[in-house]
Amino acid sequence: MQHPIYVINPNCDSAVTAGLDAAVAPLRLAGGPPITCVTLADGPPGVQSQLDVDTAALSVHRFAQAHKGRASAFVVACFSDPGLAMLRESAGVPVLGISESAVLTALTMGQTFGVIAILQGSIPRHLRNWSAMGVASRCAGEIAIGRGVSALADRPATLAAMCDAGRRLRDERGAQVLVMGCAGMAPFREPLQEATGLAVVEPTQAATAMALGRVQLGW
Hints:
By secondary structure, this protein is α/β, with parallel strands linked by helices. The chain has eight helices and eight strands; from the N terminus they run βαβαβαβαβαβαβαβα. Helix content is 43%, strand content 16%. Strands 2-1-3-4 form a four-stranded parallel β-sheet, with helices on both faces. Strands 6-5-7-8 form a four-stranded parallel β-sheet, sandwiched between helices. Helix 2 runs parallel beside helix 3 and helix 4 crosses helix 8. The radius of gyration is 16 Å and the shape is globular.
């Protein structure tokens, strides 16, 4: 039996992990590697600040080291991609971050992408990432919905805020594709897509699909 692809939720919120597990369900293929979503109990309640990112990176690295040799790939399921560079240095298997993977996927679907962030403070971190990736010129903009990770559990209010942000990115910024800027937004892809009429990239699906392809092809 193949080793699993581990989808790592770096925060300690098991409800977020449950949403990720449902999101990647269509990628579980007969004969393919198992896809196992895990919650890091020693992670922060939500990865919302740079301190949270740095703390989560160490938790992600500890998990990967504990499972080294027993994983087909690792997916870091947080939009700040905590620990991504560390894991790539040491894991020995494909390592995908959901932020990087989501944007790369969006670039194949439209000329410009817009990001729906959870908090205003997240946006500078994201913009640094787009600059480091060399894709900042194709980012139409980001809009925060003003809801932390735990507040995403209020689904009606979260979806309403996301739909408003998505329409603004479409109408005011010219975004052709939307990227959901938090792993905790996973349950909202289909209704957001329907409400805005734009393609919507769910980051953990994007990263897990890439990981699955690489594992299956031996890349």
